[in-house]
Amino acid sequence: MNRSPREMLIFALDVGEGIEEALSWVERLKDNVEIFKVGKESFTRYGPRIIEKIKEKGKKVFLDMKFHDIPQTVAGAAAGAVEHGVYMFNVHALGGRKMMEETVTAVHRTVKDVDGPMPIVLAVTVLTSLNDFDLMQLGFNCRADELTVRLAKIAQESGISGVVASVHDIDNIRRACGHDFFIVTPGIREPTAEDDDQKRTSTVRDAIMHGADFIVVGRPIRKAADPVGKAEEIVNEITQVLAMQGKVI
User: Fold this and answer.
1) Which of the residues are catalytic?
2) pTM for the model
């Protein structure tokens, strides 16, 4: 599926002291960003209303709640996401195969019931804030890259559309799951960025070069002196990399 560069850029909308300030970012970035990520911060502050407001502005929503619970509960939450008309949402792959299978079943059933569009359903593999040492402390006996591929394969077998994964895992996921499996890459930082709570980060260029279908960018745009200019710069960089790869834009 070919997407324009601006459709590949997702802006993380966990910003603002109120819903109007948050939505001002949608208005500000509307010419360069097609998809806005509503995560736990925005959703718990503003509720479903922020989804409706973003859609009213003609933009798409990535509901980033990382649903992780017993299968029936997550299936119910997934049905709610479909009813809200989000473009994509995610569950956590560590919830297990049955949870993901029931989620996919609930999505298909609800899409039919409401006669709505099919969302992209993603599974979070290993958070980009965790590294091999963190996983060892949690009791895992494998590296982050090994666990990521294992979870991605289970997600794909469960009917999930794709995964959220670090750029460092894209090549391995592609080998295991093929090129029709969506990969959304968070943790995008400037090449000179200082350390923060993300440990397995990447640049825009690296993510697109390795084959990310979407990139999630928050801080590099929010903290820029000219956020609109920075968003335009990122879209242009995506365009350049795609052109280098000979991909249709």
Assistant:
1) 66
2) 0.91
